[in-house]
Amino acid sequence: MSKLSFHKYQGAGNDFIIIDDRAQTFDLSLVPRLCHRHTGVGADGVILLQNANATCFRMRYFNANGQEVERCGNGLRCFVKYLKDQGLAYNKIVVGKDLVTGFFVQDRVAIEMGAVPEIKKVAIHDREVFLLNTGVPHAVLFGGGFEQASEIRNHVLFWPEGVNVNFVDLATLKVRTYERGVEGETLACGTGACAVAVVAHQVHGVPSPMFLHFAGGVMEVQIVQGRMLMIGPATFVFEGACE
User: Fold this and answer.
1) Is the pTM of this model over 0.85?
2) Other CB atoms closer than 10 Å to residue 39's CB: what's the count?
3) Has 242 been annotated as catalytic?
4) Is the distance from CB of 42 to CB of 35 less than 8 angstroms?
5) Residues 6 or more apart from 82 whose CB is under 8 A from it?
6) Are residues 225 and 238 both part of a single domain?
7) How far apart are CA 177 and CA 54, in angstroms?
8) For 31-47, how does the pLDDT look when each residue is reduced to its tens digit (9 = 90+)?
9) Which of these is catalytic: 35, 72, 78, 194?
10) What is the tally of structural domains in the chain?
């Protein structure tokens, strides 16, 4: 049996297994096994490198449960770092239907995350919940109550796909994110950082740039002329092979 080579990267504690799948031979059913923290490599998700066209590469992202999702902000930063480390073109990346730009700001990676999305507001259990899509759907709540995250993630309003849930302390911009597909809190979330920044900026008037504090580290989000720029760390952890 041939071995599967991989590289592991992390961005603010959000960790990923990156696999060169330009031959498109990777068995997608392996994702949950690879991501398992006790019996696999361990990760929040798997990133596949595939060819997009003659000038850039495609990134496909799968959560730890094997579900493919449209975008992962921390994963994009790690993918850019991986491409650079491999001596490959990294400035333009195809993600889903979008062409995304990535570049370096000293030792951090910046990703142009697109136009500021529309914000909708709903009430769940008498809590004010802000909804928006920064590549994937997010709910943003200000104040405590993280113990409600799983219930909100699975609320009937968001069936069947569910939603990522972010709890924010407005005074400090400390954020806790419950991610669907991981089904628990992750140490950081790039699209979540963008969602929180947009709501803090648009609803509460917090000026740009904003520095979002997660358990795994700090991410900067700038909102300039109606567009989002996310900047944060991306670090190589190790490489290996498994059967």
Assistant:
1) yes
2) 8
3) no
4) yes
5) 7, 9, 18, 47, 49, 236
6) no
7) 37
8) 999 999 999 999 999 99
9) 72
10) 2
